[in-house]
């Protein structure tokens, strides 16, 4: 989908801040599946928390990301996704050792340009939903940078800059600035 843009990259790299700024400008934003799953699991039995069962967590993220995509399929305006199905599939492959993503990843598509937040130690913070360290975030970033191109996507690294500079960068890249 040419109008569906993924913001992915290193955990703690400023994705949520960028998406909040895009939402403030009136763009549709889809919240990260992982954070929603952690909130639901923390309120429930906690069996699919990433630090308890990464494969179960990733399976839930795959299903949620596919449902998110379907929920906005009729939108004619740009939609920005905080991560998405490809991220969830990469996590599932990593957790299970699978060498190929689920078939739906090739069918449920986003714009081929994917915006990647690079590792940025100066802003990285742990929180209740992000319990892993920066080293794990960097490893995930490297996996995603390799995984996206295998599925026909073109990762574009975001500058390490203030949020307004990042917003301008993204909007210039998609022709809205």
Name the features:
globular; 177 residues; alpha/beta; 12% strand; five-stranded parallel β-sheet; single chain; 47% helix; Rossmann fold
Summarize the structure.
With 177 residues, the protein is α/β, with parallel strands linked by helices.
Describe this protein's structure.
The protein is α/β, with parallel strands linked by helices and 177 residues long. It has one domain: P-loop containing nucleotide triphosphate hydrolases (Rossmann fold). 47% of the residues lie in helices and 12% in strands. The protein contains 7 helices and 5 strands, in the order E-H-E-H-H-E-H-H-E-H-E-H. Helix 6 (134-150) links the parallel strand 4 and strand 5 (154-157). The two termini are 20 Å apart. The mean pLDDT is 89. This is ATPase. InterPro entries: NadR/Ttd14_AAA_dom, P-loop_NTPase. It comes from Martelella mangrovi.
């Amino acid at each position: 989908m040419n109008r569906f843009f993924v913001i992915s990259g290193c955990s703690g790299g400023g994705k949520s801040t960028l998406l909040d700024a895009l939402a403030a400008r009136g763009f549709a934003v889809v919240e990260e599946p992982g954070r929603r799953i952690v909130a639901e699991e923390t309120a429930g039995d906690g069996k699919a928390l990433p630090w308890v069962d990464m494969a179960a967590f990733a399976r839930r993220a795959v299903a949620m990301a596919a449902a998110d995509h379907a929920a906005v399929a009729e939108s004619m305006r740009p939609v920005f996704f905080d991560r998405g199905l490809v991220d969830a599939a990469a996590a599932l492959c990593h957790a299970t050792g699978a060498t190929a993503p689920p078939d739906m990843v090739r069918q449920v598509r986003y714009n081929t340009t994917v915006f990647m937040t690079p590792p940025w130690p100066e802003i990285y913070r742990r929180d209740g939903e992000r319990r892993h360290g920066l080293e794990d975030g960097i490893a995930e970033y490297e996996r995603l940078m390799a995984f996206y191109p295998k599925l026909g996507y073109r990762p574009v690294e975001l500058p390490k800059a203030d949020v307004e500079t990042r917003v301008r960068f993204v909007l210039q890249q998609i022709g809205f600035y």
